[in-house]
Design a protein that fits this description.
By secondary structure, the chain is of the alpha/beta class. The protein has a single domain, classed as Rossmann fold. The protein has 6 helices and 4 strands. The protein has a 4-stranded parallel β-sheet with strand order 2-1-3-4, sandwiched between helices. Strand 1, helix 1 and strand 2 form a beta-alpha-beta unit. The protein starts with a strand and ends with a helix.
Length: 142
């Protein structure tokens, strides 16, 4: 199954979700069942790495991550992925506006994951994303 997490610029929440989900899948022994990526709805951060405070929280929580290059989700990525997971309702609406009301577009949680770029609360963003990824993985496994 192919999953892509989508936030605004692809430098904070969606790469955090990508690496958290991979870590949880690895811990559960099902990592070979998933191909996981991330993207943004905007191209303004194209080419940038994960935002340093997001890296710090991943490192502090023991979540392995690798080099990353932010990019806007492509038509091909949308077509190739089984699930397109939005991190907030604005991203969800942008995805629906661009790709149509496709059932593979879903929210990670039943509410927004606040953007830590604006709130500076990377701990809360991490906790929300971790819980959302845990719930998603559990739902997919059952």
């Amino acid at each position: 199954m192919k999953i892509i997490f989508v936030c605004h610029g692809n430098i904070c929440r969606s790469p955090m979700a990508e690496f958290i989900f991979r870590h949880l899948a690895e811990e559960s022994g099902v990592s070979d069942e998933y191909i996981v990526d991330s993207a943004g709805v905007s191209s303004e951060e194209n080419g940038n790495d994960i935002y340093p405070p997001a890296k710090r929280i991943l490192r502090a929580k023991g979540i392995p991550f690798s080099s990353h290059r932010a990019h806007r989700i492509t038509d091909a990525e949308f077509s190739e992925n089984d699930l397109v997971i939005a991190l907030d309702s604005s991203n969800y609406r942008n995805l629906v506006r661009r790709f149509g009301n496709d059932p593979k577009i879903r929210m990670l949680l039943d509410r927004d994951v606040d953007d830590p770029w604006y709130t500076d609360d990377f701990e809360k963003a991490f906790d929300d994303i971790f819980q959302g990824c845990k719930n998603l993985l559990s739902g997919l496994k059952s």
